[in-house]
Each structure stands twice: as C-alpha cells, then as structure tokens.
From TrEMBL:
Its cofactor is [3Fe-4S] cluster. This is Ferredoxin. The lineage of its organism: Bacteria, Bacillati, Actinomycetota, Actinomycetes, Streptosporangiales. Pfam families: Fer4_13. Keywords: 3Fe-4S, Electron transport, Iron, Iron-sulfur, Metal-binding, Transport. It comes from the Bacteria. It comes from Actinomadura monticuli.
C-alpha cells in the first residue's frame, strides 16, 4: 500500500498526523510530510482511517 498527498488540496489540518503519526507529520511550514509512503503492514488500518478522515480528501491510497 502506498499513500500520497495532493499538496494543492491539503490544508494541513493534521487529522492524519493525529491518527497515524508514524506515517504523517507536518514540517515547520505546515506542509504535510509522508514519512513512510510505502505503508508498513502494521500501520495500514490506521492509514486507511486517516485517509477516510481527511477533511479535504487530500490523501489517496494505492493498494
């Protein structure tokens, strides 16, 4: 599974960071960083939940 962010849509609300901090983070400019684009098996359920919870639908998954 691979996760991506559309930086033009993302507003850095950090919902994903709160749900899966091992995969998502914000930099000092409030831009979303994907720390692990190839999501480890142990984090996949949390990342799916984070993607569904994004208020701007800025995240996508490739399974």
């Amino acid at each position: 599974m691979r996760v991506r962010v559309d930086p033009l849509v993302c507003e850095a609300n950090a919902v994903c960071v709160g749900l899966a901090p091992e995969v998502f983070d914000l930099n000092d400019d409030d831009e979303l960083l994907i720390l692990q684009p190839d999501v480890p098996a142990a984090e996949q359920d949390r990342v799916r939940h984070a993607v569904r919870s994004c208020p701007k639908a800025a995240l996508t998954l490739e399974e």
